[in-house]
Each structure stands twice: as structure tokens, then as C-alpha cells.
Amino acid sequence: MLNGATAVVTGAGRGLGRAEALALARLGANVVVNDYGRPGRDGSGEASAAPAEEVAAEIRAAGGRATAHCGDVSDFEQARELVALAVDTYGALDILVNNAGILRDRMVFSMTEDEWDAVVRVHLKGHFNTTRFAAAHWRDRSKAAGGAPVHGRIVNTSSEAFLAGSAGQPNYAAAKGGIVGLTTSTAAALRKYGVTVNAICPRARTRMTEDVFGAAPAAGGGLDPLAPGHVPPLVAYLASRAAGRITGQVFVVHGGMVAVMERPRVGALFEAKGDVFAAEELDAVLTPYYAERAEGEGFAAPEVLRLKRG
After folding, report:
1. Can you name the residues that pair with 199 across neighbouring β-strands?
2. What residues act catalytically?
3. What is the pLDDT of residues 241-274, one digit of tens each?
4. Whole-angstrom Cα distance, residue 5 to residue 30?
């Protein structure tokens, strides 16, 4: 499916990124494996090339082509170098999978400025940085070909935390919501060049989610519903030429299920009797409306969160 294509996968030294890099390589892609290699899931510790090198070596041992890159995607220059490495090594970039992220969880009333900034920087700015240089590469390729479309694919990583809220993760939820906005904006901007941009919201058991999902169940009864292996097939499909008509979309994926999310729709519409609403008039229409629903819970959880396979 991906023979001859070149992919960059960020945060690919462990967890989901590793699974995605291996899957793309099995389908024939050259893979640049990016990981900053810091041991702490909060981004702490010394950077190390070992995680990226180990995944790249695993791909090469299986007969694929891979190059390791130890770099911080939240750094604008290092993101530029990452994209340039793919182009210089393999001649072009075709696929960008943005996966790198960290966690610094805390309730909003206790969160420090650094805890906010660090998570938004790695997730949201990290997605922007790599996207900016990949987009410029594809635009230049298209212009050099007289405006012909190119094979460019971006798969971003958002989260259900932005959909339904996550009380102890205001920084993470905000960054993941921003990634969806970046996805839809970039999809609109790059459509003319043949480039597609989509986002996934994966549920998977990794070191990033060990506090949420706990340990994997004992072997026996099939693949763990939260195994990272459920996610790469969707990433690979979105990265392929077969998905050329799919762009600006958000998918939830886990446990053998893929759900296509709709953009927000109007749930109710109220019109003022005059030119503007008076506060009393708003109270008269909104209080009964919310009285029929669970009050104080924000947006209702999307139906996909309540779906079960079968």
C-alpha cells in the first residue's frame, strides 16, 4: 500500500508512535523515526537517541528502510531539520504522522504556568512545527510540477479529552482541541495541492495512559481492546493514496472500532422577540431547555463514547 513512500512519525520511540512506524514500514514506506528520548512521560530527563535508534533498527532488521532522528518537535528549527532529513535521505516526504506528546496532569486551580506551557508546546506547537515545513515541501513540489497534486498526507493525534473534557488535564484537553482546529484549517489550505490532513483520537494502553487504563489483561481471549495495535491500520489507510478523498476529518479508534466524528451541530435555536435578547428573556428560554438535560455537565458526551463493539 505504501511502497516507495516516505513517512515521518514523531514520538515513535515507544507506544503508539512505535506501533505506527512499524506498521508503515511493513507496508513498504521508508520511515524517519523521531523521538526526543526523554524517559519521563512528563518530558523530564535527559534526551536520548536510543528509543528512536532501536525502532529504526527493528525496521531495518525486518528488511525495511528507516532513519532515526532524536529531536524536539516543539523546537521550530529541529522540526525543520526533521523534515529536511526525510527529504535529503529519501528524496521526498509523503506522510507525516504527528504523535509526540507529554503529560503534566493537574487540576486547573493548581496548575503552574510551566505545566500549561510545556504540554501545549509539545502537543500543539509540535504539531504546527512539523506541519509547517511538510506543507511548504508539498506546496513547492506541486508548484514545480505545474500545479499538479502531490501525495501528501498528515495524520494528527488528538484525543477524546477534547470532546468530553478531562478534569485533571486542562492543558492536554486544550492542546488536543487546538490540534483539531489546526487539522481542519490545514486541510482547507492544502486541499488544492492534493494533500489530506486528518486527526485521530486513539484509546490505547501505553505509558502515557497507564494511570487511566491500568495494566493489560492476562493473555487469552484475543487482542486487548486497548492494545496499540488497533490504531496503526487506520493511520496507514489515511496515509495511503486510497484515502485521497478524506480530509479535515476526526476519527475515534480503539478496540476494533473506528468512528467518524461529526463537526458540532446546532442543538437548539432561540430567537429574540426584538433586536436583542434581554437577560430575563434568555432565562425564560434557556432555563427550561437545560432543565430537561443533565445540568452542569457541559457538552454531552458524544455517542461514540457510549458505543460498545457488537
Report:
1. 156, 250
2. 159, 172, 176
3. 999 999 999 999 988 889 999 988 888 999 999 9
4. 6
